Amino acid sequence: MIVDAHHHLWDPATREHPWMPPELARPFTTGDLRRQTAAAGVDRTVLVQTVSSAAETAEFCATAAASDGLIAGVVGWVDHTRDVPSQLDGLAHAQFLRGVRHQVEDEPDPDWLRRPEVVAAVRSARGLVVDLLVRPDQLPAAADLLDAVPDGEFVLDHGAKPPLGTEGYAAWRTGTAELARRENVVCKLSGLFTLDHPELLEPAVDHLFSVFGPDRLVFGTDWPVSTLALDYQAVVARTRSLLDPFSADERTAVLAGNAVRTYRL
Domain holding 78: CATH number? Predict the structure, then answer.
């Protein structure tokens, strides 16, 4: 079994996506996803938020409910400065909501995750995984958040996007290693093939393997953003090749088991 624990769907005609490049400004539907996953041998997926919209969260839960089991869970958006349960009151198909996320990387403040109202909101999200979409300079604040909410469950999206070939790479290594010392966080091997200087990716992936280990790594394609670099099947194949040094059981954990455990699929 393979679980794609990080992908998106969207229709730019229904709402604005300020971050979206022109190449991606077209609909990507459940039907498109089904064709891609079938060709790549992916069995189940986790659908992740794309904009700061409670309406999108509700739509994604409904999409999962109508997907005949393909979309097994949703990571939706909630306001990370307000009590989370109150925002989810009355959410239809809430059983598919497995996690929440805010695009913290868009917050100029590197200490945004240290704000008292954010810590309180994350603490209120018990029972839901908190996906962390952060820049490398926000990793120290993320580590403090994990310490402040030790019973929370966290996922580091896209390995915090290592700044390959830049002066910031050393700080990224330090920040991810420090974050990985907390046992309540796992790391997604996702969104890596669209980074600048992809020829320098392998040492960064080796570092994530080293600090998180195969029991705290989760596979995701980041489709359709990933199509800026590779098609869906190629992302799956290249990720599997990165797992060659692992045992069969470890590869199974990264490709499926860890996602099933983390998101309770």
Answer: 3.20.20.140
